[in-house]
Each structure stands twice: as structure tokens, then as C-alpha cells.
Amino acid sequence: MNYKVPDQSGKVFVVTGANTGIGRVTALELARAGAKRVILACRSQERTQPVLDEITEIYGGDAERVGFLALDLGDFESVRQCVATYGEVYGDERVDVLINNAGLAGKKGLTRQGFEMAFGVNHLGPFLFTLLMWEHLADDARIVNVASRAHKRVDGIDFDVVREEAKTPTGFPEYSVSKLANVLFSRELARRAKGTGKRSYALHPGVVASDVWREVPGVVRWVVKRFMITNEEGAMTTLYCATSEAASGQSGKYYSECKEKAPAKCGQDDALARELWDRSVSWVGVEVPEELG
Ligand SMILES: NC(=O)c1ccc[n+]([C@@H]2O[C@H](COP(=O)([O-])OP(=O)(O)OC[C@H]3O[C@@H](n4cnc5c(N)ncnc54)[C@H](OP(=O)(O)O)[C@@H]3O)[C@@H](O)[C@H]2O)c1
Q1: 293 part of a folded domain
Q2: Is residue 130 included in any domain, yes or no?
Q3: How many CB atoms lie within 10 A of CB 231?
Q4: How far is the CA of 122 from the centre of ligand 1 (A)?
Q5: What residue numbers bound the domain in which 260 lies?
Q6: 290 within domain boundaries
Q7: CA 64 to CA 61: how far, in whole Å?
Q8: How many domains does the chain have?
Q9: Considering the chain, what percentage of its residues have pLDDT values greater than 70?
Q10: Is 175 in the active site?
């Protein structure tokens, strides 16, 4: 699997969680492919600065072509502020590809508005971000949702449990539910956006030796990371969904190793996808864009 990103001149990208891991490589490769602008939406400007510097260097010192937006997906207010800042800074500039990459695993606790951490950060934050960014997206924009094959480890979503702190020792079942939510959101978004020109993709990046394992105990982490693929390899399927000609006519599908694959049965459950959508709308308190009504 070695996907080569075609020329991206003229295209504007927003990548969440791009200060490290798969997101960092994704942003760097898009800049190398000549993107007009790459905007990194991350929690900390300080932690993102080295990547902003790397991209500026790729652009021959033209810092205007790389942007930073402060975004904490665990706080709806931060998500709203982030989109407002996008409007203030970039005005009418349309985003060609929105990459919902940021995510966490195994972290206990609740988000600012009281949702289980993985569900809140991995699903509700990106859900709100995507719907608020809708007015800033190009007519033929792609929305790329970095999910995981971990979604296959669960068979549904308990909508009461996602309002409580994770109960399992690893937090992995809760993570898997949040990744199922990514697959279902992407599917429902595609169904609603049908006929608009905007397309939605969900993907599994591979099992990648990134920082996502930071909450796993040290020795275990060291052992498992030795069997994982690199961040460079892990970014391939995201880049494929974001830029490939082959995927351009598709929407609502799930990918792994730069190929369309079948998601789990529960990832194809349209009734569950609709229920998740409706509950998410009321939880985040967003007005659904008319196109998606
Ligand atoms: N690594 C794997 O094997 C694997 C497998 C399947 C799917 N994935 C998915 O791939 C995506 C990228 O993960 P990765 O492996 O590259 O992990 P990573 O190296 O840990 O990067 C995760 C990114 O998400 C950001 N993030 C975490 N919490 C956030 C929040 N509340 N608000 C905004 N950003 C937040 C992190 O920012 P900070 O640095 O500030 O924390 C970081 O930039 C995730 O969605 C993950 O679920 C990964």
C-alpha cells in the first residue's frame, strides 16, 4: 500500500489533531502535494508549532499557506469558537477537504458537557464541527472521518452509557463505540448530503504506532508498538479518501488499506445511524444545515 497523492494545487484542507501521529503526516503530505492551504485544528498551538514550521518550510517560507485553529473537541464551546475563528480569518475561502482525524483512546472521565470521554471527543465534537463548518465547505467538498476497525468489536450504542464515565479497565470498548459512531455518522451524512456534491468517507488507518496508545501501560505499549505500522503508512488511507480520483465518485463508504471494505453489520445499520444523528443534534444543540435537513 503506497498511495501517491496527486497534485493538490488550489485545494484547501482542514485537518484536526494534526500536531502528531497520523494527522501530522497527513498535513505534511498535503502540503508536499502543493495544497493551496493546510489548516491544522488542534488543542495546543505550542504543540502544533513544530508542525506549522515544517509545513512552512515545505512552502518555501510562505507561512500564509499554513494555518492554526484552536480546537478542543471535548468542549462544544471550543468547537463553536473554532468555526467562528475560521470565518473571521479565512472569510469566504471554501474548504475542499475536512479531515476529522483527532481522537483519543483509553482516557477516563467526562467531556466538558458531560459525555463519556471517547464518545464526546471522537464523535460529538467532530459531529458539531462538521455541521458548523458546512457553510464553509466547497460545493464538492469531501469530509473524511478517521474511524477504526475497532468499531467491529461492538454491536451497537447504548445511548445511556455514553453519558457516563467509562467503566471498563482499558476504556477500549468505549473507544470502539465511539469509532462505530464515526462509521455511522459518515454513512448518515452521505445519505443526507446525496445530490449536494459533498461526499463523506470513513476509514481504518491500520494499527499505527502513534501517540494514541499513550494511556496504555508502558511495557505493554512498548511491546505492542513494535508490531504496528508507521504514521507514514497510517496516513495513506486518509490521503486516499481525501484526494484520490478513484474515490471521488463514492460517498458513505468505509475504507482500509486504500480500498473500499465492508464495515461491520452494525456499521451498516441505517436505523441506528439515524438515531445517532438525531440524538447528536439534540445533544450538541446545532441547527442542521438546510442541505442536510
Ligand atoms: N493509531 C492507531 O492504531 C489507530 C487505529 C485506528 C484508528 N485510529 C484513529 O486515528 C486517529 C488519529 O490518531 P493517532 O493514532 O494519530 O493518535 P495520536 O498520535 O494520539 O493523535 C491524536 C490527535 O488527536 C488530538 N486530540 C485528542 N484529544 C483531542 C481533543 N479533545 N480535541 C482536539 N484534538 C484532540 C491529539 O491532540 P493532543 O496531542 O493535543 O492530545 C492528537 O493531535 C484517531 O481518530 C484514532 O482513533 C488510530
Answers
A1: no
A2: yes
A3: 21
A4: 9
A5: 12-284
A6: no
A7: 9
A8: 1
A9: 100
A10: yes
Q: Which residue has the higher pLDDT, 131 or 106?
A: 131
Instruction: Spot the catalytic one: 3, 59, 175, 240.
Output: 175
Phi then psi for 208, rounded to 5 degrees? Answer: -110, 135
46-75 pLDDT, tens digit per residue, is 999 999 999 999 999 999 999 999 999 999
H helix or E strand, kind and range, residue 99: strand 95-100
Which residue has its alpha carbon closest to ligand 1 atom 5?
A: 207
Q: Is the pLDDT of residue 217 over 90?
A: no
pLDDT of residue 18: 98
Q: 125, 74 in Cβ contact below 8 A? A: yes
215 has pLDDT over 90: no
Cell of 58: 515545505
Closest residue to atom 36 of ligand 1, CA basis: 17
Residues with CB under 6 A from ligand 1: 17, 19-23, 42-44, 47, 71-74, 101-104, 121, 146, 148, 204-205, 207-208, 210-212
Q: For 35-48, give one letter per residue: b (16+ CB within 10 A) or e.
A: bebbbbbbbeeeeb
Written as nine digits, the cell of 180 is 462505530
Is residue 236, in this structure, part of any structural domain at all? yes
Burial call 235-252: b when 16+ CB within 10 Å, e when fewer: bbbbbbbbbbeebeebbb
Please give the grid coordinates belonging to residue 217.
Answer: 501501560
Ligand 1: atom nearest CA of 17 is: 43
Segment 145-165, tens digit of pLDDT = 999 999 999 999 999 999 999
Q: What CATH code is carried by the domain that includes residue 179?
A: 3.40.50.720
